[in-house]
From TrEMBL:
Keywords, sorted A to Z: Membrane, Transmembrane, Transmembrane helix
Residues annotated as transmembrane: 30-53, 112-132
Keyword Transmembrane helix: yes
Species of origin: Pristionchus mayeri
Keyword Transmembrane applies: yes
InterPro entries in the cross-refs: 7TM_GPCR_serpentine_rcpt_Srh (IPR019422), Nematode_rcpt-like_serp_H (IPR053220)
The protein's name: G protein-coupled receptor
Length: 149
């Protein structure tokens, strides 16, 4: 069973790799879609920044700072993906190519993916720190889950 499914996957991958072609018109449509998505994302980032800065209660300043840090890192990630790499997926194959500013300047795709990994790790760590802070502020004094200072 496993060998049979492996042969099917090999056959499918070799077939799909040779059959993929994206015309210039379709590429322009994909670029337009990605650009519109990026513009909407930046508008939503701006709204989130505005609301975090102006509408956060005074007793939530530390949590607000964590959320602003997360928002900044996610906005940087959007700029990196949509402007720096500007990737085009080649479905159904697990492949793609990029036409972004960083790639035109000679930065390798591997370096771009490492930057994405670092940014994603930063988002995860900041989220965990925010949750840990909220958890510690909710716990009553003397609770055995409370961190020692």
């Amino acid at each position: 069973m496993a060998i049979h499914s492996l042969l099917i996957v090999k056959k499918y991958c070799s077939h799909s790799m040779s059959a993929i072609f994206i015309s210039r018109e379709k590429e322009k449509k994909i670029f337009l879609y990605l650009t519109l998505t990026f513009c909407c994302s930046m508008i939503f980032h701006s709204i989130a920044f505005f609301l975090l800065i102006t509408r956060t209660p005074k007793n939530q300043i530390v949590v607000r700072n964590y959320l602003i840090a997360i928002q900044i890192v996610i906005a940087v990630n959007d700029v990196h993906l949509d402007v720096g790499l500007h990737g085009i997926p080649l479905f159904p194959a697990i492949a793609g190519y990029g036409n972004g500013i960083l790639l035109r300047l000679g930065v390798s795709v591997k370096t771009g993916l490492v930057i994405i990994f670092i940014i994603s790790t930063h988002v995860g760590v900041t989220t965990i720190l925010c949750i840990a802070h909220r958890h510690q502020t909710i716990l009553p004094t003397g609770n055995h889950f409370k961190f020692k200072k």
